[in-house]
Design a protein that fits this description.
Residues 166-171 have low confidence and may be disordered. By secondary structure, the chain is an alpha/beta fold. It is 43% helix and 13% strand.
């Protein structure tokens, strides 16, 4: 079933949720730019020229020109960001709030002096309060609606026809997780691919181990990959360290990690599903950071190469999900395992028949720092793979210190695999044990032991 959004029934109120945030990202970023005096001066000097610098929709730009805050919020604006626009015009917060009510400034001020608007009759749509009915809108909004009605109707008809041609209505059925994929994401693997070294004796055995996976992927290609990885001091520096961050943008550029961006395709996202997952998972009491602008590093792009090769464009949509395993405290295996279960519930409540794979990346045993650098523990790694398949709930109880002692300081990345495993149907009790489609282990790839596993939901 779809997410519960009870606030849709509150009159005269726009709740800024994950969907609104995604929709209004560039509008709100434009507003944030007005915090700098030089930008305010440029905007005042030539609004159209300044707005042309921002990849906002035509409707968002029209709402800004009209200074219609209700209209701007409908397109994804948030009042705290839009306040920067009001401040640029010299308005107080009270003047801005009053402008959205249809009241005169004097009448709104008098209402506030008298104690403010009463919630009586204004708690639910359809009551008899004084905040019912459509929000006050500008003449510019009315003109926009009139001139764009035909285009909007044509778009709706076109979308419906496209769904019929595809043989499935987008509202029929729900998304489901078909498989989980696990792999290391060693940066040197990406360099070997980029420099054409995959056939060299050092690298050939590793890449041969992924050939069965590429064939499997051709036969089991998903619509969306939910890819769990860790950012390697690329998009998140020490100024901001989210424990769990979900990318909700429409596209993600490959990052420059110091050698220039990798020559791989731009990663295309699935904003609607990502926003849905964010809202659902947060409502299940997991605190996610929503990221509307993100560059992705080798932690995400190397796994894509290993499973899809080097195409001109990636054949699937991707939702990046970054986990902090760089600065302690990092999330426990148990927390990651539980998060995977919440993600499964979120995906299964999305009202579109999408096939989704969830990937856990990173690891296996490796240490990149200090006198103990180079640590590899083949026995422990393979036991981890055994337990991940057969007893994931018990494996999730392994404490951080065991990862560090046995798998190296960077081996802690393996907790991310537990997110993917927690999303499988056997964990939820809705299916049998998953089928092992492929398993592979190799040492070394630069400084790292490489593990790989594909589990199919039954």
């Amino acid at each position: 079933m779809a997410l519960d959004k009870p606030y849709k029934d509150v009159p005269g109120t726009t709740i800024f949720d994950a969907d609104q945030s995604r929709k209004g990202y560039w509008l709100n970023q434009f507003c944030m730019s007005l915090m700098k005096a030089e930008n305010r001066a440029r905007f005042k000097a030539d609004e159209d020229a300044y707005l042309a610098e921002w990849p906002m929709t035509d409707e968002q730009k029209a709402a800004v020109r009209a200074r219609d805050l209700n209209w701007a919020m409908r397109t994804g604006g948030n009042i705290y960001f839009l306040a920067k626009l009001g401040a640029t015009d010299g308005l107080s917060f009270q003047q801005m709030a009053g402008s959205m009510t249809g009241m005169s400034e004097h009448a709104y001020r008098d209402m506030m002096i008298a104690g403010g608007r009463s919630p009586e009759g204004n708690r639910y749509a359809g009551e008899s309060g004084n905040a019912q009915g459509p929000a006050a809108q500008s003449e510019a909004w009315k003109e926009w609606e009139l001139t764009h009605q035909e285009a909007l109707a044509a778009q709706i008809l076109g979308d419906h026809a496209a769904r019929q041609t595809a043989g499935a209505d987008a509202t029929a059925g729900h998304a489901r997780i078909t498989a989980s994929v696990y792999t290391s994401h060693v940066p040197a693997i990406g360099a070997a691919i980029d420099l054409g070294k995959t056939g060299e004796p050092y690298w050939q055995p590793l890449f041969a181990g992924y050939e069965p996976s590429k064939k499997w992927m051709e036969e089991n290609r998903p619509d969306v990959v939910f890819l769990v990885y860790n950012d390697h001091a690329t998009s998140f520096d020490l100024g901001m360290i989210p424990t769990f961050a979900i990318g909700t943008a429409a596209e993600f550029e490959p990052a420059d990690e110091g050698y220039g961006p990798r020559p791989v395709p731009k990663v295309m996202g699935h904003p609607e599903l990502a926003s849905h997952i964010a809202q659902s998972v947060i409502q299940q009491d997991f605190d996610l950071t929503i990221v509307n602008e993100l560059q992705v590093d080798h932690g995400l792009t190397v796994p894509m190469n290993l499973l899809f090769g080097s195409p001109e464009a990636w054949p699937v949509k991707v939702i990046p999900f970054a986990v902090n395993v760089v600065q302690y405290p990092v999330p426990s295996g148990q927390r990651c395992f539980q998060l995977g279960q919440a993600i499964r519930r979120a995906i299964e409540s999305f009202d579109a028949p999408l096939k989704v794979q969830i990937w856990g990346t990173g690891g296996m045993s490796h240490q990149l720092q200090g006198p103990r650098a180079g640590l590899i523990n083949k026995e422990w790694d393979n036991q981890f793979l055994d337990r991940l398949i057969a007893e994931p709930a018990e494996l999730a109880k392994v404490p951080h210190i065991e990862y560090v002692r046995e798998a190296g300081s960077e081996g802690i990345e393996l907790v991310m695999w537990l997110i993917a495993r927690g999303a499988m149907s056997d964990v939820a009790g809705t299916g049998p044990a998953p089928k092992v489609a492929h398993r592979f282990f190799h040492v070394p790839a630069s400084n790292t032991a490489v593990g790989h596993l594909i589990l199919e939901n039954q």
